[in-house]
């Protein structure tokens, strides 16, 4: 049985973090460049975002390799506190071992602790394993439209 990975909130940006997030972002999106150190610093410093990392088990006194990440955005709007999960990615070498579930459960706990009544996320239909996971965790498909506006100079 696979061991549950260590899930931790990123508190500081390091060269190791920049490299690990870059590796994971390339597995998530072929069109988005990996974030720079300064961009990661902004994510970590923001009161609205929590960057979670999953690390494989390592010998005592050592840090395991980063095998997954998730970003949780928590924000207040006039109708209450809301939370949104974005950029969930598990390294190809660790898929199917409970990493995505551990990351998602920690994010749900953090969102609840922050007062969010709901947590939203989107997932492409082609990501069948991820969609099964989200439904198993209790996420329900919504009858809504998701729109995206893309700035032409971005």
CA gyration radius, whole angstroms: 16 Å
Strand content: 15-25%
Structural classification: alpha+beta
- Helix percent reads 25-40%
Which CATH top level class fits? Answer: Alpha Beta
Cα end-to-end separation: 45 Å
| Secondary-structure element series | EHHEEEHEH
The number of helical elements comes to 4
Poorly predicted residue ranges: none
Q: How many structural domains in the coordinates?
A: 1
Secondary-structure map:
Blueprint: E1 6-9, H1 15-28, H2 37-45, E2 49-55, E3 66-77, E4 80-90, H3 99-113, E5 118-120, H4 128-136
Parallel strand pairs: 4-5
Antiparallel strand pairs: 1-2, 2-3, 3-4
Overview of the structural elements:
It is globular, with a radius of gyration of 16 Å. The protein has one domain: 3-Layer(aba) Sandwich (Aminopeptidase). With 154 residues, it is an alpha+beta fold. It has a 5-stranded mixed β-sheet, sandwiched between helices. The chain contains 4 helices and 5 strands.
What features would you highlight for this structure?
single chain; 154 residues; alpha+beta; Aminopeptidase; 5-stranded mixed sheet; 24% strand; globular
Briefly, what is this?
With 154 residues, the protein is α+β, with helices and mostly antiparallel strands. Helix content is 31%, strand content 24%.
């Amino acid at each position: 049985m696979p061991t549950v990975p260590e899930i931790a909130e990123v508190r500081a940006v390091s060269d190791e973090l920049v490299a690990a997030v870059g590796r994971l972002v390339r597995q998530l999106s072929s069109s988005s460049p990996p974030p720079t150190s300064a961009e990661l610093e902004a994510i970590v410093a923001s009161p609205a975002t929590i960057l979670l990392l999953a690390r494989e088990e390592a010998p005592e006194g050592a840090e395991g390799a980063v095998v997954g990440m998730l970003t949780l955005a928590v924000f207040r709007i006039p109708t209450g506190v809301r939370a949104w999960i974005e950029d969930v990615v598990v390294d190809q070498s660790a898929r199917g071992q409970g990493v995505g579930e551990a990351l998602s459960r920690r994010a749900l706990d953090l969102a609840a602790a922050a007062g969010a009544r709901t947590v939203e996320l989107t997932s492409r239909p082609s990501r069948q394993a991820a969609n099964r996971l989200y439904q198993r965790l209790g996420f329900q498909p919504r009858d809504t439209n998701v729109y995206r506006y893309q700035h032409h100079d971005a």
